[in-house]
Automatic annotation (TrEMBL), chain A:
InterPro entries: Bact_solute-bd_prot1 (IPR050490), SBP (IPR006059), TAT_signal (IPR006311). The keyword Signal applies. Gene3D superfamilies: Periplasmic binding protein-like II (3.40.190.10). This is Multiple sugar transport system substrate-binding protein. Coiled coil: none annotated. It holds the Pfam family SBP_bac_1. It is found in: Cell envelope. Keywords: Signal, Sugar transport, Transport. The lineage of its organism: Bacteria, Bacillati, Actinomycetota, Actinomycetes, Micrococcales. Belongs to the bacterial solute-binding protein 1 family.
UniProtKB/TrEMBL annotation, chain B:
It comes from the Bacteria. It comes from Brachybacterium sacelli. Residues 77-292 form the ABC transmembrane type-1 domain. Pfam families: BPD_transp_1. This is Multiple sugar transport system permease protein. Keywords: Cell membrane, Membrane, Sugar transport, Transmembrane, Transmembrane helix, Transport. It is a multi-pass membrane protein. It is found in: Cell membrane. Belongs to the binding-protein-dependent transport system permease family. The chain crosses the membrane at residues 19-38, 82-103, 115-135, 162-188, 209-234, 272-293. InterPro entries: ABC_transporter_permease (IPR051393), MetI-like (IPR000515), MetI-like_sf (IPR035906).
Amino acid sequence: MIPRRSLFGAAGIAGASLLAACAGESDVDPALGAPAGPQDSGAITFQIWDKAQEPAMQQIIDAFREQYPDITVTMSSAAFATYFERLRIQATGDDLPDVFWINGPNFELYASYGMLQDLGELEGFDPANYPLNLTELYTYQGTPYASPKDFDTIALWYNRDLLHRAGIDEPTGSWSWEEYRDASAAVTRTLGAEQIWGNPGGVANQAYIYPLIMQAGGFILDEEKTVSGYDSPAAIEAFSFLDGMIREGTAPDVRYTTENKPEDLFSSGRAALYQSGNWQAALLKDSPVREHLGVAPLIHGAEEANVIHGIGYAMSARSRNKPAASAFLSFLGSEQAHRIQGAAGAANPAFVGTNDAYIEALPEFSLDVFVDAAETARQYPASQNTSAWLQLEELLFPKILSGDGELEKHAQDLAARMNGVLADES
Amino acid sequence: MSHDTAPPRRRRGRGRDGYWPIVFLAPLMIGVVAFYFWPILSTVLNSFASFDPFGGRTFAGLENYRTLLGDSFIPRAVLNTAVYTAIVLLGIPIAVGVASLLTQKGLRFSRFYQVLFFLPAVSMPVAVALVWRMIFNQEFGVVNWALSLVGIDGPYWVTAPWWSLLAVSVVGLWSSLPLAVIILSAGLQGIPRELYEAAQLDGAGALRQFLSVTVPLLTPSIFFLMIITAINGFQLFDLLFAMMGQANPAMADTQSLVYLFYSEAFRQHDQGYASVIALLILAIIGVITLLQFRVQKRWVHYD
């Protein structure tokens, strides 16, 4: 027991450096070359992190193989929690899958270290086919390195039964911050005795804190990706708005939401208003309060702002079978493949104009609100070592909203630490 | 005359055995070098390096050590880890009591109790942590329900600073009991019956026997337990990680040293700085173990 634990640390580091020593500097041919033709044969690997999307991905592979019967695609899926740990080890050992999923927080890390194939020459790939912000998210120094797969934006989920009981009209358009706060307060006041909250609070970054800071006129990361925006007046304003609702008792405090997740409070009918993304549809369609749920556009502050994020399909720069991998990657980016994942209800497809099937899968949730939001949404903030400052957010967001009276001090601490991480990026 | 030739004979003896001893020891030595010496050496080397996320190293001099001195998370993590270790060490007296009850002569169902006390050791740490997280839940947990019966409004056990450390420590203490009980039971069974008989003849009662015979003769086992419990305590990670979860407002104030190591190595991708933290843990454990060996002469009775 003792050796196992003490080795955990040392062996991990030693293992990584051994791998590094083995990897060496292999020559990378940056050229993509011509894709394989329908008569060519070959075998490639494809790695994803979501078991729930495996059937849809398999349907896409099957459709691809109707055109390329001799190319074998071996799909593997790893749990999201360990996916990027595994990918980093694969990259260090020069063993990346030929084609794999990537996300915004990790994209630049891989692109800037030359791990991803430049897709500028990829046949049939046109960045204009996808929402502009998503294309930008997967562009590094002017070059596209991943093909957008799906996207999510943020909107206001609501429980019309709870709003009705508190005497509030359900939102039709976009509420202001004040309308959101007042409606939340009214629900908590009326139904608080039943342990029902106006909104379930929480510290969700992408769904709650990022858009509010942007709406207050602030930023998370500046354009040059060197400065954190968490100590700016706009950030303090957004944090204070959230903190204020917690202090008034309108929303539960962060200690409570650590034990009782906001999404669980909302999906069990214990909260009336919940600002979150379209990824919640999968959870909420099985919720006991499903019939009461609706979706309205995101609330707005001084500025309109929403955040868009989505998965990308990337190809290893060191793929050993680039012709077959490019043929598969162009197919993944095609309208046909996006229609398949939409119809399977797997995710909101990124290819412009293919959302219908996904929206129609759950008509009562009016998922078109999320698609409309994509037009004006801002890019998900990410830098080279995003996971480093995401962890700082995870540590300090809850402290900022902990109600200990030192909101600004904790926000400055977060900004200072994040600036340190950004300064270390190459 | 023959004893004069003893040394040469020994030399001849080694020659006769040839290289066989080396051959038999080699698998072990290769393992020791590969899994103990090499990791330690490479951690020391890495502590002077700056890493890119894909393992590339450049020499960074004392940079990582300077970072350590300026890192405000470190002092709190040292304090948290020390408090945790101190509380877990309190489990040893409890284990002494439990072990002596379990090895009592004529105890019915003693096997059953032994299995019961050993259960925590064979349960998955993460599963254990999740169950305790529910037990400590502020709204629905058993602990606060029990407190409410006597009119106490229980705290947020796992999401408030200090309370969370206390909760994690209690679970750490609970899960360290089985091993301690096993080792102490073995120690108890090694105490000769005659000593108790002699003590009885001298008119010692049960308590006197316990204090004058049992405890002194158990001190070698207790000393061994203190060493390994302190080492385990300073390696607090999995319980903390699983019991506290993410987005926990108390986490910034409850981090342990190994937790900091984990976040530097695997979240921040800074293996150089993580190596420095690993060496700091090694140094602290080394000093504590050394101190315990120094002090043991005063209180540990061998025979």
